[in-house]
């Protein structure tokens, strides 16, 4: 079986006539990752896979573990959890919990998201740990991260408190953010809450530190982080219209620099790129040869509306083709992915979109199979003759 690359029909080339040069963005962050959530287009990377101290941004992994436990019934929002001496002893940003407290899971979640409570994260961790310890929970976090494709993450605690070996990459944080948005829509609105005053204990620590939430630019999450080692960071997301972006920045020098850089990234991502529908669901993009089927060719169609993110300015020509391993052997099921639409854009990553079979193809009987074999033999002979010329 050979890999075929078919140039697209003139009609499709007309639909996709032009694409612009990608606008460049120079970030002050030590590491950064920006992705268009709807199309999966990576807009910006800077040291994306470098393991760095994530500070409180690593609390997102603790929240993921908690949301998974709520989903499968190991936890309930109204469960009341005890506070250990270990959790109470945490300093930095806290809910000011003490060992006489029994705190509802729902309040602890808000304490982690809005107040960035180190103590709240530890309480949740100890409740889910297989050995009852935060260190045991951190090992669970590391193992789960690997399962989720986060290969540059290693956890030693639940909250990002500075500790040797506690590391995440900005790419991993983006993977995690995407999961929280996509897999837990019931809980995701909690990330946009701007205030939470737990038991009136600490009025000075009631506000969400995310600097974008009140700017009216569509920001609705997710988590800030800061230590002297890590600098100032933010895992953010914003939605405008039908588009959503997710971004991670790390290593800024101040809270103000973090706020300014985050706003610049959001504005850049929404203003410099637009989303285009390049083919509607069911549109036939091309045809492919079939091997040993009851028909000789099959249509390659879009399984859904195909959306492509393109720069808004400086348009240039598009290079688009269909790629598949062919001829495609029967039997083939309708809707089975059998090819890809490959689009090369100046200054942007190559886009690869699935194409599926337009119909089912049964394995042919004796005569169709003989005809197919004969056609293939003739093609091979013709190709060999041309090579000799």
H/E element string? EHEEEHEHEHHHHEEEHEEEEEEEEEH
Distance between the termini: 25 Å
Quaternary state reads single chain
Q: Any idea what the shape is? A: elongated
Secondary-structure arrangement, i.e. CATH architecture of the largest domain = 3-Layer(aba) Sandwich
Number of strands: 18
Compute the average pLDDT: 88
Report the CATH topology name of the largest domain. Beta-lactamase
Give the strand order of the largest sheet, numbering strands 1, 2, ... along the chain.
Answer: 1-15-17-18-12-11-16
Largest β-sheet summary: 7 strands, mixed
Uncertain ranges: 9-23, 384-389
Radius of gyration: 26 Å
Number of helices: 9
Structural class: alpha+beta
